[in-house]
Amino acid sequence: MAQLERLRVFPVKGLGGTDVAAADVLGGGTLEGDREFALFDAEGDVINGKRTQRVHELATDYDPDSGTFAVETPAGETVEFDLARERERAAAWFGDFFDLDLTDLTLERDVRRGFVDRREMGPSVVSTATLETIASWFDGISVEGARRRLRANIEVAGVPAFWEDRFVGDDAPAFEIGDVRFEGVTPCGRCVVPGRDPDTGAVTPDFRERFIERRRETFPEWADEDAFEHFFTAMLIADVPEAHRGRRLRVGDPVTVLDR
Fold first, then answer.
1. Are 44 and 106 in contact (CB under 8 A)?
2. Burial class (CB in 10 A: 0-12, 13-18, 19+), 242
3. Any long-range contacts for 9-12 (C-beta under 8 Å, 24+ apart)?
4. What is the per-residue pLDDT across 139-176, written as a single tens digit (0 to 9) for each?
5. Which CA distances in Å does 255 have to 4, 37, 164, 214, 225?
6. Does 99 have pLDDT greater than 80?
């Protein structure tokens, strides 16, 4: 049976994710606690993995109940922040660590939508089988490694690899997790981040080339290829209709494919 296998939110954009047992869909259509905070420079540009590979060097842990965000450096230094109350202190620490000559780094907060890349869209969705398949394409990449490289919010088990591809294109169906409806918006074209080791930032040789080759070879027959601009794509970006926002997702919820 198809079910919600994992919910993962990323409290600070660009840094590590945290598994949660449940999450509300916010009024803006994203998940509670996802990319709620983000670091910006004085020009208003976000600090993330596209900007600096050093984000991969930080091990993070987040307690959603207390709001405590713990960070460990490669040298073993550990520091904790109350993100809601210590934004200036956190921004100063991250500015020193990243060493980007940033004089006015700020930690901003958005509780309505979070700082997701696609501001008008909702959560990202992938199947466990997709992660298993992608991991099998590369020596030395585990399923958890693929999970951390792709950084999806919602993981669905009990379905085939690239199940999520069916929800874009002409006449694509919708799906429901528990009582929350999801409609596909766009396949997620990938950037440089999935091609790096999530712990070290080291580039996996020929990642993009091999990924595209294998993706083309295994592209599912149920997907609408015209909805994909290229094959360096994995994961679905979905939308939750306004009438379904404010509802709660829970790990273990059943997943059902619907007609539009």
1. no
2. exposed
3. 9/33, 9/34, 9/35, 9/153, 10/34, 10/35, 10/151, 11/35, 11/36, 11/37, 11/60, 11/62, 11/64, 11/69, 11/83, 12/36, 12/37, 12/38, 12/39, 12/60, 12/69, 12/83, 12/107
4. 999 999 999 999 999 999 999 999 999 999 988 999 99
5. 7, 29, 12, 27, 24
6. no
Task: Yes or no: say if 59 and 126 are a contact pair by the CB < 8 Å rule.
Answer: no
CA 151/CA 149 separation, integer angstroms: 6
CA 130, 132, 138, 140 dihedral sign is: positive
Question: How does pLDDT run across 193-236, given as a tens digit for each residue?
Answer: 999 999 888 999 999 999 999 999 999 999 999 999 999 999 99
The span from the CA of 63 to the CA of 5, in Å, is 20
Residue 141 burial class via C-beta count within 10 angstroms: exposed 0-12, middle 13-18, buried 19 and up: buried
**103 in Cβ contact with 42 (< 8 Å):** yes
- CB count within 10 Å of CB 247 equals 14
Amino acid at 215: R
Q: Token pair for residue 30? A: 């994203």
Cα angle 25, 31, 34; round to 5:
160
